[in-house]
Amino acid sequence: MSLQPPNQRPLGQSSGQRPALAAPPGAQPRPGLQPPPQAQPQRVALGQPQAFGGGQPQPVAVQPVAVQPQAAPAQAKSLGGIRPGMANPNDPNLKPIERLFALMAQYDSSDLHLKAGSPIIMRVKGEMRPLQGAPLTSEQIYDWLKDIASPEQMQLYDECGDLDFAHMLPDQARSRFRLNVFRDKRTNALVARRINTQIPTFEELNLPAGSLTRILDADDGLIVLAGVTGSGKSTTIAGMLDYINSTQAAHIITIEDPIEYEFRNKKSFISQREIGVDCKDFKAAIRTIVRQDPDIVLIGEMRDPETFEFGLTAAETGHLVFGTLHAGTVAQSIGRILGLFPPEKHPMLRQGLQFNLRAIVCQKLAPSPKFGRVPLNEILLCTPIVKKILAEGEDKKLNGIMQGGREDGMMTFDQCIVERCKAGDITEEVALDYATNPEQLRLALQGIVLGSAKGGLV
């Protein structure tokens, strides 16, 4: 089954007609993506998922949704959602790849995957869902990329084989997408992340608001947000900055690659710098940022020693610094930071963390019957005992400190999982899958707490 009706060109070719994504098996033929003559909206369904890891395909749980824009729900309960003013996938003025971006909003899809030899794939509620249709070609993906990338960006991609940039749809909702284009076995591939242009609050994101607001009371220091790719770090950190924006009069500067959330000035004044657009690279942005009178600084990702050293130095000089790390837990975050430097620098680095680290917030996203996906958090606040442990290198004690530090706003992943499970946010099966200690968590769910009540899971 192809992506277009018979005798029509592929989406990547120039044509006045733009084909529709395929309908589900057994459905009657339907018109293309042009507005149908009937009043009923055209409908598009996700197909059966392919067996990426072997085994038999299972039916898709997603129901067909109307391609026409729909009204937003009264209260959004997920990281995404359809809002008035979003682009219509049927709009003939949109470029082919933009129509796919618009379709992502209809499915509340977080990511779009285009890969030569595979159908179009969307990630819906954390699961990869291929759309029905013929496999894409490398030439199609390249042509779609040329439609939205600048000549300078295309030249960079041709030379380097890798490109990061952001794209905004021409709609009233200012829908933004973060793209990474790369080569896969000499063919073109693309992954696009849909960015929620309306920055959600802690409550809308189902985050532990009490712990996060306590962290944001700090006047200076370093706050690290850690998590694997796709764990919602960008959304959480945007919520934290927007909370400051709503409550404090400060100058906030962000250094991002690329810019994801666009902030609007509220009580704070916000400057956003995009690598490759507003400045040459992280080094160039970091070198001049202290001359721009910031109170708060966001470093998109602390990926090398120089970036982390700047964050620590800025924290020492009275700034509140936010940075992200690719790490799964608090212990892994500290290990990742130390791993950026040679062992002989670790004592000095630990001293810097002792005096300047304010908190580490780790996050995962788990499937939820109520919200689609819900965040699971592990939070370490730098109390005096934590600072002493960091200085002495006794990192193994931090888990016990977090377990016993609920009154201070700390928590372990397992404690958060128990709360989510008891509230019905996640199932017991999911809780056991995500637990670091499944046996102890099973006992906690039954009301059996090992150790003291203060240091246990509940």
Question: In summary, what is this structure?
Answer:
The chain is an alpha/beta fold. It is 30% helix and 21% strand.
What is the CATH architecture descriptor of the largest domain? 3-Layer(aba) Sandwich
Share of helix, binned: 25-40%
Task: Give the low-pLDDT segments.
Answer: 1-82
Q: Got a strand count? A: 15
* Rg on CA atoms, Å: 24 Å
What's the mean pLDDT score?
Answer: 82
> What is the name of the CATH superfamily of the largest domain?
P-loop containing nucleotide triphosphate hydrolases
Report the sheet-strand fraction: 15-25%
- Whole-number tally of structural domains: 2
**Multimeric status of the protein:** single chain
State the CATH topology of the largest domain.
Rossmann fold
Largest sheet: 7 strands, mixed
The outline comes out as globular
Give the spatial strand order of the biggest sheet: 11-10-12-13-9-14-15
Overall structural class, as computed from helix and strand content, comes to alpha/beta
SSE series: EEHEEEHHEEEHEHEEHEHEHHEEHHHHH
Counted by DSSP, the helix tally is 14
Q: Which CATH class of the largest domain is shown?
A: Alpha Beta
Task: Describe this entry's structure for a reader.
30% of the residues lie in helices and 21% in strands. It is an alpha/beta fold and 458 residues long. The protein has 2 domains: 64-195, Beta-Lactamase (2-Layer Sandwich); 209-411, P-loop containing nucleotide triphosphate hydrolases (Rossmann fold), CATH 3.40.50. A 7-stranded mixed β-sheet has the order 11-10-12-13-9-14-15, with helices on both faces. It has a 6-stranded antiparallel β-sheet with strand order 5-4-3-8-7-6, covered by helices on one side. A two-stranded antiparallel ribbon has the order 1-2. A hairpin with a 5-residue loop joins β3 and β4. α9 (346-356) packs antiparallel against α10 (384-392) and α13 runs antiparallel to α14 (438-445). It is globular and about 60 Å long.
